[in-house]
Recover the amino acids of this structure.
């Protein structure tokens, strides 16, 4: 059966992109929870940001937040 018979590449592309986004989100949360921050409050602030704003929060943490590790 060809991919065209299943609706083309769109469903496959949606699954792949979703898996990448979810994987990145989980990886960032694990990095935050395993990391050494100067205070416990800053760690939980990052967790809240990443949970409530998954794509934006993970992107901001990767670009800016990893520098906050002590």
């Amino acid at each position: 059966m060809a991919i065209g018979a299943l609706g083309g590449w769109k469903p496959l592309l949606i699954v792949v992109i979703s898996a990448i986004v979810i994987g990145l989100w989980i990886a960032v949360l694990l990095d935050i929870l395993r990391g050494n921050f100067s205070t416990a409050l800053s760690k939980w602030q990052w967790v809240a940001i990443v949970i409530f704003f998954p794509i934006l929060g993970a992107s901001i943490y990767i670009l800016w937040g990893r520098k906050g590790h002590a």
Summary: The CA atoms of residues 21 and 55 lie 7 Å apart. The chain has a mean pLDDT of 86. Helices lie at 10-34, 40-52, 54-63.
